[in-house]
Amino acid sequence: MFQTEFLDIPALATAGGEVRLPGSKSISNRVLLLAALSEGTTTVHDLLDSDDTRVMLTALEQIGCVLERGASTLRITGIAGALPAGTAAELFLGNAGTAMRPLTAALSLLGGEFTMLGVPRMYERPIGDLVDGLRQIGCRIDYLGNAGFPPLRITPADVSSEAQAPIQVRGDVSSQFLTSLLMALPLRAAQQDIHIEVVGELISKPYIHITLELLARFGIAVHNDNWQRFTIAAGSRYRSPGDIHVEADASSASYFIALGAIAAEGAAGVRIQGVGAQSIQGDIRFVEAAQAMGAQVDSGPNWLQVRRGRWPLQAIDLDCNHIPDAAMTLAVMALYAEGTTTLRNIASWRVKETDRITAMACELRKLGATVEEGADYLRVTPPARPADWRAASIHTYDDHRVAMCFSLAAFNPQQLPVRIEDPQCVAKTFPDYFEALFSVCETPRERIPVICIDGPTASGKGTIAAEVARRLGYGILDSGALYRIAGLAAHRAGIAIDPAHEGEIAALVRALPIRFTATQQILLDDEDISQAIRSEEAGMDASRVSALPAVREALVALQLGFQRLPGLVADGRDMGTVIFPDAPLKVYLIASAECRAERRYKQLISNGISANITALRADLEARDARDMSRSVAPLKPAPDALSLDSSTLSIEQVVTQVLHWWQERQPFKSVLKG
Ligand code: DC
After folding, report:
1. What gap in Å lies between CA 338 and CA 340, rounded to an integer?
2. Is the Cβ atom of 480 under 6 angstroms away from ligand 1?
3. In this predicted structure, what is the pLDDT of residue 670?
4. Is the dihedral angle over the CA atoms 108, 109, 113, 114 positive or is it negative?
5. Does the Cβ of 456 fall within 6 Å of ligand 1?
6. How confident is the model over 550-573, as pLDDT tens digits?
7. Does 176 lie in the same domain as 119?
8. Are residues 560 and 665 part of one domain?
9. Is the CB of 484 under 6 A from ligand 1?
10. Within this chain, do residues 308 and 430 fall inside the same structural domain, yes or no?
C-alpha cells in the first residue's frame, strides 16, 4: 500500500495481463455462515482475508465447525443445522456487522448459550429491529448494555414452530436485518413455509439480491414477492454446493474494465480474475455501460477479459441509478470519449464518502474537461485537443473511489503524469489498488522517473535515497550493494579480484541468483547476505571488483530492470553518468572526509562492530581515490548534476532539498508539505 502524501503516476501507455481482485466482503461472510449451517464440507475459494472475515471464522470454530486452511482455499465442515448439545460460547465479533447480525439470528434459532461481544463501536450499531423480529417467534435475546444494541446474551428457547404469522422486519435501517433472517430462518422451515414481511421501504436491494443468490447456491429457494414479502418453502435444508468461489468485488473491477477499454490494444486485453459477467453483485452491470462506450468484453464464470474496441470511446447518456459506485469510473472514461457524456440519476453521489458530484466535477475540470454539474447529474466533455489536457494534482476527499478512478487519467494523449493525493485512502476496499494497476500497465522506460543520488563512500546516499523513495512511494536501487554482492561472490568462489580474472567474475555475476525482498533484505541463493556485504572488507572487495569493466557491463541490465512504475531512486557512483543518463534529477552528494569517517564510525559502532576512526578515514580516502581514478565509469558528477554538501546538514534538511528540487521539475501546482 502507498502510504505517501501523494503518488505521482507517470503517463501510462498500454495495459495487458492479469489482475486478481480482492474478494467481496459481503459475499465472504454470507458464504461462511451458510457453509457453517450446511451438512458436509464446503471448499471456499478466494475468501477475502480481512478483520471481518477473521472474526467470523473464529466464531464458527467456536460453535463446532471444522476449518482447514489451504493456500487459496478454506474447507469448512458445517454443523448440519444443529449445534452439538450444550454448546455455549462467548463470541467476539469485532466491528463486523456482517458477522454480528446473521450470527445472532442463526444462534438464537439453534438453541445454545451465547454472549455476543464486539469492539465499542459495535455497541453503537443498531440491532434492535432484528432482535424484535426474532423475539416474535420466541427467541430469547437479552441486551447486556443499551437496549437495541450489542452486546447480547442468547439463551435456548422453545422457538415456536407453529408460528404461522409472517415475521416482520424493518427494511429502512439496514438491509442486514432482512439478510440475517433470510439466512437463518431456513433452520425453522422443515415443516412449514416461513413468511417474512418488510416494514417500510427496503433499502439496498442489490445486497438482498446477493443474499438470495447465495441461499439458492446452498439449496434454499426463497420466493421474492416484490421485495416486500419473502417466503422460505417448507422442507428447506442447507446443502453444501461442494465448491464455491467468492467473487471479487465488482465495483473494484470497474477500474480494470475501464483500463482494458482505454489501453488494452492487443488481442489479449486485461484479464480480471475473480468476477464474471454472471456476478450476483449489482455493480457488474457496469460492464454494459463500458460496452456502450466501446469496451470489448469476454467473460466466463469467474473472469472478465476486456480490450479496447471503439476508439476514441463513445460518449453515452445513461441513467446510472443501478450502478452508483461504479458509475464514477464512467466519468473518467468520458475523458477519452468523442462528445459529451451525461450521467443521470446520481443524486446519491452527494451523500457518499464525500459529495461525489462536486468532487468529480472539480477534479475533472483540473484535467481540462468541461463539466456541467446538476443536482443529480454530471455532464463531461473531454479536453477539445490533446494540448488542452492539464497535469493535475487530484484531491481525493478521503474517498477511495475518487483516488482509484482518477488513476486512469494517466493515459492522457499529452503524456502528462497524474498526481493522486492521499493515495492510502484506497485501503477502504482495495489496499493494493495501485500495485495491482502498475502490474498490468506498461509505459516506455523513459517516462518512468529516476532520481539519481551519486557520491563518494559514506556521503549518506543510501539513507537519503531510502527516505526520498519512501516519501514518493518509489522503488530503490542500491547499486553499491550489487558490487558488494559481486565482491562477496568472487571471494567465496575463491576467485582473485584482479583484471586477470575479470571475465570469470563477470560470468559469475551474470548468473548470480540475487533477490531483493519487499523489506529490503538482499538474498543470494536464498541466503540473507544483507549484513555480510556491509563490512569494510566487503566494501574494499566491492571497490576492486567495480573497477573491472566487464563486471560493470554484466550489472547494467540488472540495474536498468529496477526502473519500474511508479518511479525509482537510484544511489551509487555512476547512476547519473552511465546507467540513467536521462534522469530528470541527479544529485551529487558530498561531505568532508572527516565527516564521512565519523558517520561510518558511528554506524559501525551502533551495529556492534569495533572500528578505528583514523583507519576508517584512510580506507575511505583510498576507496574514493580508486573509484575516481578508474578508467570505467569513474566517480564524478554528471554535467547536469546538482551538488549538495551534507557535512553540516541533517538528514531531514538534505531530504527536503532533494524533494524541493524534484517538485520544481514536476508540472503540478501543489506544493509539498514540510
Ligand atoms: O556505495 P557503496 O559503498 O555500497 O559501494 C561499494 C563500492 O561499489 C564502491 O566502492 C564503489 C562501487 N560502486 C560503483 O562503482 N558504482 C556504483 N554505482 C555503486 C558502487
Report:
1. 7
2. yes
3. 53
4. negative
5. no
6. 999 999 999 999 999 999 999 999
7. yes
8. no
9. yes
10. yes
- The secondary structure of 314-334 as a DSSP string is EP-EEE-TT-TTTHHHHHHHG
Q: What does the pLDDT average to over 255-270? A: 94
C-alpha cell of 70? 489451504
List, for residues 295-338, the tens digit of each pLDDT value. Answer: 999 999 889 999 999 999 999 999 998 898 999 999 999 999 99
Residue 518 has pLDDT above 80, yes or no: no
pLDDT tens-digit readout, 339-388: 999 999 999 888 777 899 999 999 999 999 999 999 999 999 999 999 99
The three cell numbers locating residue 515: 533477490
Answer whether 380's CB lies under 8 Å from 409's CB.
no
Q: Candidates 454, 459, 483: which one to mutate for ligand 1, based on the most atoms within 8 Å of Cβ? A: 483
Q: Domain ends where: 221, 245, 269?
A: 245
What is the CATH classification number for the domain harbouring 611? 3.40.50.300
Nearest to 313 by CA among 288, 331, 289, 294: 294
- Number of separate domains in the chain: 4
- Print the domain residue range for 222: 25-245
CB distance 487 to ligand 1 below 6 Å: no
CA distance 556 to 189: 70
Domain final position from 565, 585, 603:
565
Nearest to 90 by CA among 38, 151, 132: 151
DSSP string, 621-645: HHHHHHHHH-SSS-S---TTPEEEE
Read off the pLDDT band of 41 (50, 70, 90).
Answer: very high
**Which one of 479, 548, 578, 599 would you pick to mutate in the ligand 1 pocket, going by the greatest count of ligand atoms within 8 A of its CB?**
479
What contacts 117, CB < 8 A, 6 or more positions away? 90, 91, 92, 93, 150, 151
Claim to verify: residue 542 and residue 590 sit in the same structural domain: no
CA-CA distances (angstroms) from residue 597 to 456, 544, 604, 612, 625?
A: 12, 20, 11, 9, 15
Q: Strand 66-69's sheet: what is its strand order?
A: 66-69, 73-77, 41-45, 243-245
Joined together, the cell numbers standing for residue 529 give: 547476505
Name the residue type at position 53: T
Of 554, 574, 570, nearest to 562 by C-alpha is 570
Region for 536 from its dihedrals, namely left if φ exceeds 0, alpha if ψ lies in -120 to 50, beta otherwise: alpha
665 within some domain:
yes
Instruction: Read off the C-alpha cell for 269.
Output: 486485453
Contacts of 427 (CB under 8 A, 6+ apart): 1, 400
Q: Residues with catalytic annotation? A: 325
List, as one string, the DSSP characters of 30-95: HHHHHHHHSBSEEEEES---SHHHHHHHHHHHHTT-EEEE-SSEEEEE--TT-PPTT-EEEEE-TT
Three-state DSSP class for 179? helix
Cα–Cα distance, 548 to 551 (Å, whole number): 5
The pTM of the full predicted model, rounded to 2 decimals, is 0.86
Find how far residue 648's CA is from the centre of its chain: 40
User: Do 362 and 402 share a domain, yes or no?
Assistant: yes
Residue 622 has which C-alpha cell? 583510498
Q: Would you state the pLDDT for residue 482?
A: 95
Q: Residue 265: what pLDDT?
A: 92
Question: Angle, nearest 10°, between helix axes 25-37 and 51-62?
Answer: 10
- Calpha distance 287→256 (Å, rounded): 11
Residue 1 lies in a domain: no
* Nearest-CA residue for atom 5 of ligand 1: 480
Q: Where are the beta strands (DSSP E) in 261-328?
A: 270-273, 296-300, 303-307, 313-314, 317-319
Whether a cis peptide bond, with omega within 30° of 0, leads into 634 is no
